[in-house]
């Protein structure tokens, strides 16, 4: 055996692949391609198959397969709905309609007409942003295009600068994902941009107006900004103020197909899916919409979503719903899957 990795590392790999249902002959062939002799590969796979630890873990793997089957049933039933293949637009949904038909049923919806009273829709442009809080220091993510895992590594990309300078950059930029002000920068920016919250109404039909500032987030970026496929640990509203965004969404019940890696992130590039590398994505239902200014998109908890700015964009997001939204309190896989 010539591979430089320790044998125990390979043994973990063998056990994982057996529990995932990969055939022993395929695993042996992969070992042979990585420096194992035919005899070594056969011995290691046979040892894993006979291990009481692997045999015990097989029961857990079977329970997980049963749960995946359950989710598959939900997915098939959801696709049978008359509007199961689209993200519908609904004009000024009532509170009961929204919660009963979408929030409680874990279904996305675009709500129109609810932001008409927002001064932000007419006031927010580059000049207004500079004049209102241009001198305040804000936090922005930079260097995203040089890092394939820019979202996971977000803390490494933070930079402080005057808001005015950042607005100038966004206005002058062409299409780029290299810099973006996102919800991950919110802890500092909510105070720096506090005055802008006076230009939005609390959407009290669905949200808790007493908690709007602490659980709302400001996003600003040039055309081409991307948020890779991920899922949130809360239900979210995405309120589009300036510019358009393309959004692709995969239901929570299709999680098994999206190559979830660390925490809530996927390996799949939502802008151009490599189906040779990620063939299971063909089984995932992908719903797509273009969100325009004045529209409000409900992103249900657990739904995978990829977001791309088609123009220079400003977006507000909210998590302060009137109904229970503390699903993160019992989430335990932050550092692993």
TrEMBL record:
Residues 174-337 form the JmjC domain. GO terms for cellular component: ribosome. Coiled coil: none annotated. Gene3D superfamilies: Cupin. Pfam families: Cupin_8. SUPFAM superfamilies: Clavaminate synthase-like. Keywords: Ribonucleoprotein, Ribosomal protein. This is Ribosomal protein L16 Arg81 hydroxylase. It comes from Actinomadura luteofluorescens.
